[in-house]
Amino acid sequence: MNAVERIEAELALLMRRAEATRRAEAGQAHRALDRAAYVILGHLEGRDPVNIGQLAAELSVDASTATRQVAAMERDGLITRGRDPQDGRGSVVSATSLGLTRLRAVRKARADLYERILVDWSGDDRNVLATLLHRLNQSMDSHLKPR
Q1: Which residues, 6 or more positions from 38, have their beta carbon under 8 angstroms from its beta carbon?
Q2: Cβ neighbours of residue 13 closer than 8 Å, sequence gap 6 or more
Q3: What pLDDT does residue 26 have?
Q4: C-alpha angle 110/114/117, rounded to 5°?
Q5: CA 102 from centroid of its chain's CA atoms
Q6: What pTM does this model have?
Q7: DSSP per-residue letters across 88-100
Q8: 142 by DSSP, 3-state: which?
Q9: What's the pLDDT at 7?
């Protein structure tokens, strides 16, 4: 296998194992949000209200998918929705205090989990992995942007 084929295979295994690890964890804190809510709340944290169309574009999801996810999160009290002051036809969303509290609890539970998984990794190895994952995410974002 060449390097790109190895990367693809390792990423496929990583995604499967990450999900299996999340499901196998005994604690419930990391399950307080589904994956979509976790990503959306993380994206809204510390920001002014965001237009749903802009949010969809930033997260590389279809506008109808973002609208459906936002509606479920609004029902759960995780976000609030208001009229977009720039475009009265659109909506803007922001995280609620409940949403941010859950986000922080899930983030801590996940960090604790990865702390246990990476216990025998050096600080340098952890930093290299974090840097390369960030770089991979940036490359994926660039690939997804319209040309």
Answers
A1: 103, 106
A2: none
A3: 58
A4: 145
A5: 13
A6: 0.85
A7: TTSEEEEE-HHHH
A8: helix
A9: 94
**147 falls in which pLDDT band (50, 70, 90)?**
low
Residue 6, Cβ neighbours under 10 Å: how many?
Answer: 10
Q: In Å, what is the CA distance from 11 to each residue of 3, 18, 27, 93, 126?
A: 12, 10, 25, 32, 17
Q: Which domains does the chain have, with CATH numbers?
A: 29-144 (1.10.10.10)
The residue with greater pLDDT, 31 or 120, is: 120
Query: Which residue's entry shows tokens 């196998």?
Result: 24
- Tell me if 58 sits within 8 A of 39, measured CB to CB: no
Tens of pLDDT, residue by residue over 37-83, are 999 999 999 999 999 999 998 898 998 999 999 999 999 999 999 99
Residue 87 DSSP class = -
DSSP 9-46: HHHHHHHHHHHHHHHH-S-SGGGSS-HHHHHHHHHHTT
The residue type found at 133 is L
Tokens of 3: 């390097």
Q: Which residues is 76 bridged to in the sheet?
A: none
